[in-house]
Amino acid sequence: MLKFDEQKQINDIQGALALRPQVEKMVDELYDKGFDNIYYLGIGGTYASSMQAVTYINGKSNLPVYVQHAAEYYTTGNKRLTKDSLVVISSVTGTTEEVITAVDEIKKVGATIFGFIDEKDSPLAKKCDYVITYPEPGTEQLKFFMFADRLMKNNGEFDDYEDYYKELDEHLAKDLVEAEKQADEFGLAFAQAHRHDAMHYFVGAGNQWGATYSYAMCYWEEQSWLRSKSIHSAEFLHGTLEIVDETTPVTVFIGEDEQRPLSQRVADLLPRICGDYTFIDTKEYELPGISEKYRGRIPTVLLMHCVTQRIDAHVEKLNRHPMDIRRYYRQFDY
Amino acid sequence: MLKFDEQKQINDIQGALALRPQVEKMVDELYDKGFDNIYYLGIGGTYASSMQAVTYINGKSNLPVYVQHAAEYYTTGNKRLTKDSLVVISSVTGTTEEVITAVDEIKKVGATIFGFIDEKDSPLAKKCDYVITYPEPGTEQLKFFMFADRLMKNNGEFDDYEDYYKELDEHLAKDLVEAEKQADEFGLAFAQAHRHDAMHYFVGAGNQWGATYSYAMCYWEEQSWLRSKSIHSAEFLHGTLEIVDETTPVTVFIGEDEQRPLSQRVADLLPRICGDYTFIDTKEYELPGISEKYRGRIPTVLLMHCVTQRIDAHVEKLNRHPMDIRRYYRQFDY
Asked: Which positions 48-67 of A are in contact with B (Cβ < 8 Å)?
């Protein structure tokens, strides 16, 4: 299978899950210390992952957890981000300039900064009060959700925590590679059909909204140089639907959290107005050993990424466009 | 001038400003009563206006004010929206189904609902604890900002409140129609150049981000049936920029609040990578009688709408596409 190293992918997920004792120790300490508000802070892909984590928490928890956009922070500010706040960041390189600028401002305020930074000697890693280093990109969402889950456990909102992670430790990594194998045929067919789309619309909601947003922007636009637009399922019905006709390519990411009905509503409408729709429904994939009640947490979030990863691998090959080249990003100063 | 009734537009703004004594009385009462959190709740266009108001407040105030998406509320919920919370809504028809569903859920929680509802006998008007009726659409942002300003004044964060509104009462309405006249030539040229664009990118930040989002979705997509994508200025540099080349139509909304530098950065980059860019910079328009320090509040928000309104009027005529027709929205059940 193209661009697929089964054992490495299993190791990556298992390795991220193995960070849990570290995460727990730090989160427990932070929870005991107390906080007024918690901010997942990011830009671009990390902003998307932050939206996923915060939507996930909002559906289950009373904790005051918010998304804070890095560049909005150092321009507009946020007076409710105080010395007693907890800020959670993630970075692969540890050098994203907007995040560095925001973190420098936050350090003046005195908030506590917790980072999942893949590069341990990077500028961002050095600025964090708490840092966990795990040099395998692609596990950011899992790490953000592990952080969230431990917070919710401490907050008395996740009684099944141990049982849940037992299932993840035992089954998740293997289940995801199996799902990815199952998705390969779909990925190829989708890539063949859509790799020259003038524009492709991606629609999603809930903890899949951040995935939808980042898939359109960080994968299609940034890595494959293909034009795409993401739109939240609920918002799709308040404007974007009017430009849809027989020939408009629209893909709906259908997950399994509380907002599934919003995406399902779009999926029910599309066949009546669109002749080029695709539904990626996580329900079509088994995750043996993972209880039904846990699927809507991190498992189906990661599952969606496994499916889209198959599209990307085939687009990259068919379009002869290496995903790691950039036209402009970090190529010159701007 | 096409689709331009100068006196009516002046009357509409002046009439909205004249709601201030009502707004003040209600906000003062609500402020004295106290609240834990305030939520601007909306969907589609009202979600966009909510984002504008909340970004505006965040830059200036310590008040716990948040955006709450209506459909996310009745699916995911929000445990920090309590009986002590204040929810602010706006609606032209008073019949938006997602907002009705959300408000019905919120009423069970017992939060206080304040509505600017244009239709006084509508379902939403009847559900509000406080309602202000003013049957002139197009003043929603002004009303949201008036509400915000009074809150901030009560919170000790707007000492110049009386001076500011004196300037608005005396000059804003007239200044806006003058700006709109100034923008007409630009609007025609822009419409001629872009009315057949296969896709148009709109970029903006700060209290112009909601305007950018709604302009792309509620005007181009919904009313003109033209394809467009909105992207926040800070996010544009983290993905979307890679699909820009000589022929990509990109328009940047440049306002005058704290996030102006984020849009300016995009405007500085675009000439180097794009051959079809447009900047709509509110600084190019005078607003006589409005102090420099007040321009970044509501004046330039409304000014941007006056400029884009000139584009829409010409697109409507040239494209022979009446802006009030809908293909799907409210045409059948879905």
From this structure: 55, 58-59, 61-62, 64, 66
B145, two tokens: 């900002």
Of B44, B75, B227, Cβ closest to residue A238: B44
Residue whose pair of structure tokens reads 């600084």 in the numeric block: B283
Partner residues linked to A280 by β-bridges: A253
Which domains are seen in chain A, by residue range? 6-154 (3.40.50.10490), 171-318 (3.40.50.10490)
- β-strand partners of A130: A114
In the block, tokens 């500010």 appear at: A77
B-contacting residues in A 127-166 (Cβ below 8 Å): none
> Phi and psi for B289 in degrees, rounded to 5?
90, -10
Interchain contact, A55 vs B43, CB within 8 Å: no
Amino acid at B63: L
Q: Are A64 and B80 in contact (CB under 8 A)?
A: yes
d(CA B119, CA B187): 31
Q: How far from each other are the two terminal CA atoms of chain B, in whole angstroms? A: 39
- Going by C-alpha positions, the residue among A252, A257, A254, A253 that lies closest to residue A296 is A257
Residue A249 near chain B (CB below 8 Å)? no
String of DSSP letters for B25-78: HHHHHHHHH--S-EEEEESTHHHHHHHHHHHHHHTT--S-EEEEEHHHHHHH--
Closest CA to A239 of B144, B278, B218, B198: B218
Distance CA A121, CA A125 (A): 6
Distance between CA atoms of A230 and A170, rounded to whole angstroms? 34
Q: Considering only the beta carbons, identify the residue of B44, B66, B199 that sits closest to A239.
A: B44
Query: In 3D, which of B289, B268, B286 has the Cα closest to residue B277?
Result: B268
Task: Report the 10 Å Cβ neighbour count for B215.
Answer: 25
Instruction: Say whether residue B108 is in contact with chain A using an 8 A CB cutoff.
Output: no
- Asked whether the beta carbons of B174 and B303 are under 8 A apart, the reply is no
Judge whether B46 and B71 are in contact, CB under 8 Å.
Answer: no
Q: Say whether A76 and B58 touch across the interface (CB within 8 A).
A: yes
Per-residue pLDDT of chain B (334 residues; tens, 9 = 90+): 999 999 999 999 999 999 999 999 999 999 999 999 999 999 999 999 999 999 999 999 999 999 999 999 999 999 999 999 999 999 999 999 999 999 999 999 999 999 999 999 999 999 999 999 998 878 999 999 999 999 999 999 999 999 999 999 999 999 999 999 999 999 999 999 999 999 999 999 999 999 999 999 999 999 999 999 999 999 999 999 999 999 999 999 999 999 999 999 999 999 999 999 999 999 999 999 999 999 999 999 999 999 999 999 999 999 999 999 999 999 999 9
Residue B109 at interface with chain A, using a CB cutoff of 8 Å: no
d(CA A224, CA A314): 11
Q: How far is A192 from chain B (nearest CA, A)?
A: 20
Does the CA dihedral A17-A21-A22-A23 come out positive or negative? positive
C-beta atoms of A55 and B75 within 8 A: no
Residue B256 per-residue DSSP state: S
Cross-chain Cβ contact B242/A328 below 8 Å? yes
User: Which residue type, as a one-letter code, is found at position A71?
Assistant: A
